[in-house]
Amino acid sequence: MNGIDIRLFWIAFWVYLASFLLFTLYSAIGKRRVGVVATLLFFAAFVFHTFGIGARWWVTMHPPLSTMYEYALAMAWMVGLAFIFILARLRRMSLGVVVSPMLVMVLVIASMLPKEASKQLMPALQSYWFYIHVTLAALSEGAFILAAGAGIMYLFKRRNEGGRLPSRDFLEELISRSIRIGYPLFTVGALFAGAIWAQKAWGAFWSWDPKETGSLVIWLFYTLLLHQDIRGRWRGRSLAILSIVGLLIIIISFLGNLFLGGMHAYI
Fold first, then answer.
1. What residues contact residue 221 under an 8 Å CB cut-off, 6+ apart?
2. Which helix (H) or strand (E) holds 84?
3. Residue 124 DSSP one-character state
4. Is residue 109 part of a domain?
5. Residue 72's CB: how many other CB atoms inside 10 A?
6. C-alpha–C-alpha distance, residues 187 and 75, integer Å
7. End-to-end Cα spacing for the chain
8. How many domains does the chain have?
9. CA 161, CA 156: separation in Å to the nearest integer?
10. CA 130 to centroid of chain Cα atoms
11. Cα(228)–Cα(179) distance, rounded to whole angstroms?
């Protein structure tokens, strides 16, 4: 399928990329006009992204969440939505340099995945539990991606105090809050809703499928990270580094479908 949805996603990608470059320039020179243009481009890209998802939904006649490609696009959309929400509340355009590169990274990964869409879903995917599972998982991993972006910027900020980048304290709080938002969503969506869907689709709550195992590893990692964060033990640089490690685990788990197969290999 190479329809209007694919073209809209490509337009969104290039506009997101342009906004990222301008956000980077804004963080370096501090010209408000540059930040405003970068923000407007991000909004425009988000609109194209949203229409692309809507177009794919229209063509397939079901929510576009049934393939790895569609999941990656949904996850990137969640990251964009989170940025817009934060920007509306905090009025901090400099956060664009944290969010936009992470969103571009997810779209690059999506571009390398099979893009075919089918109007007829396999029986295992014809369940509202599947959509609850995937939607909440995308929301939670979008929050974890945002935390990792803030973590990368935190490490960079320690070496470079200039420019218009957010303060280290603000970035640390953003990492912590993003993880605290993502963790319960992942617990309910990826684990509990996923287990219910698995039981209805395959007759078992847990099968040690590679994707299930990867989700368990992610949950255990963020359980430990959240526990130590709440106790105040892993803060600052440690929290930033571990948020990035969490992102790497998520990427490995996501791409594991391509190499390990299993019941979740529905691309």
1. 245, 246, 249
2. helix 68-90
3. G
4. no
5. 21
6. 16
7. 14
8. 1
9. 9
10. 18
11. 12
CATH of the domain at 208: 1.20.120
Instruction: Name the helix (H) or strand (E) containing 67.
Output: none
What was the pLDDT predicted at 206? 66
Is pTM beyond 0.85? Reply is no
Give the type of residue at 262.
G
Report, in angstroms and rounded to the nearest whole number, the Rg of the chain calculated over CA atoms: 19
pLDDT for residue 1: 46
pLDDT beneath 50, residues of the chain: 1-2, 267
In a domain, 182, yes or no: yes
The position carrying tokens 């969640």 is: 78
Establish if 176 belongs to a structural domain: yes
Which pLDDT does position 264 carry in this prediction? 56
In this predicted structure, what is the pLDDT of residue 94? 76
User: Which stretches within the chain are classed as H helix?
Assistant: 4-29, 32-60, 68-90, 96-111, 128-159, 168-186, 194-202, 210-230, 236-260
Residues whose CB falls within 8 Å of the CB of residue 4, separated by 6 or more in sequence, listed in order? 55
| Residue 142 lies in domain | 122-260
119-126 — which CB contacts under 8 Å span 24+ positions?
Answer: 119/59, 119/60, 119/61, 119/62, 121/62, 121/66, 122/266, 123/201, 124/201, 124/202, 124/263, 124/266, 125/66, 125/201, 125/266
- The closest of 85, 255, 250, 239 to 171, measured between CA atoms, is 239
Is residue 110 one of the residues assigned to a domain? Answer: no
Please count the CA atoms within 13 angstroms of the CA of 21 that sit on its side-chain side.
Answer: 6
Q: Are 33 and 41 in contact, with CB atoms under 8 Å apart? A: no
Q: Is 49 helix (H, G, I), strand (E, B) or coil?
A: helix
Positive/negative CA dihedral, 235, 107, 114, 73: positive
What one-letter code names the amino acid at 200? K
Is-contact 38 152, C-beta < 8 A? no
